Amino acid sequence: MDILLEPVAFERDGGNARKNSAKHGVSPQEAEEIFSHEPLVLARDVTHSTANGRRYFALGHTRSGRKLFAVFVIRSKKLRIISVRDMTQAEEDAYEDFEKDS
Q1: DSSP letters spanning the chain
Q2: Has residue 4 been placed in a domain?
Q3: pTM for the full model?
């Protein structure tokens, strides 16, 4: 699935950034790091996508090795992170399996 075909520009939402920082301890800068490290696992969020926009999931890691799960949308060629948190154990296991196979 070719979700990110070109360089990514980020669009920050102050409310989501504050929520993610307060609830999950993830800054906007740290959340954006996962999109520049391999492997990056991307999938469409069929359940929460609407006619107005598609949502996506991402599993990735930061420079420090923190493994994060993010939900995002792409609007006007800009990626906006809606939510980001540490991976669950099941997500981490799937990510590590993907890492081994790639």
Answers
A1: --S--S--EE---HHHHHHHHHHH---HHHHHHGGGSS--EEEEEEEEEETTEEEEEEEEE-TT--EEEEEEEEETTEEEEEEEEEPPHHHHHHHHHHHHH-
A2: no
A3: 0.88
Give the tokens for residue 38.
């391999």
Pairing of strands 78-86, 9-10: parallel
The residue range of the domain holding 97 is 9-101
Tens of each residue's pLDDT in the chain, 102 residues: 456 756 579 999 899 999 999 999 999 999 999 999 999 999 998 887 776 778 999 999 999 999 999 999 988 889 999 999 999 999 999 999 998 887
Q: Are 56 and 3 in contact (CB under 8 A)?
A: yes
Distance between CA atoms of residues 17 and 29, nearest Å: 10
What's the domain count of the chain?
Answer: 1
